[in-house]
Amino acid sequence: MKRALWLILVFAFMLPNAAYAANDITVTIDSVPVAFEMPPQIINDRVMVQIRAIVERLGCTVEWDDATQTSYINQPGVPLSRTAVKGQDINVYVNNQPVEFPDQKPVLYHDYVLIPSRGVIEALGYSVEWNDTTQTQAISTITGLATPPSTIPVKPDVTASPTPKPVTPVITATPTPMPKTSDGYIGNLNTHVFHYPDCSSVQRMSEKNKVYLPNRETAINDGYVPCQICKP
Prior knowledge:
The protein is an alpha+beta fold.
């Protein structure tokens, strides 16, 4: 009887540092709890889980190779490559790459393979947070969105095409003939040119050079020529 009791105590100490809190640990993926056949355990301060329940929720495939004691976990689009060899420990491969567990190795617990979840989740590219108060391991698949896209409208680049300076059109106007009157014409005794009385040339003409011409016929007969400005 004493020998049987002693053997029970020996086997108890051979278990991986006493798993505990089996029914109190919660694992969530993006705040949604994960259901397990074997509840998560704490072994050597590491959360140990039935990894299939988590990775299948993440869209991965899981293959167990009994010959090499290896769990192969592959994300979509990654073909399976069985490269593991049997050793003393259970192997875990993620996307055909071995995952190292320096603190706590995977274990066989009540016919279930329990694996440290953090190492696998981080190898898949997701983040893991532990809340000691609620005994919850939270897995987040939302990556690269810590800072939401800016909603501030972008101002257009107004320097790319400078605003052209306004161009004042050049208008070449046809000179308006001086208004015609019935008061005859003014001739220039010096130049022998006759004008309408209100022509600008008359205003600049010296009084001694002005001569009154009653009509166009008289001006032409007296040897005067029409002004090219007022065109009498």
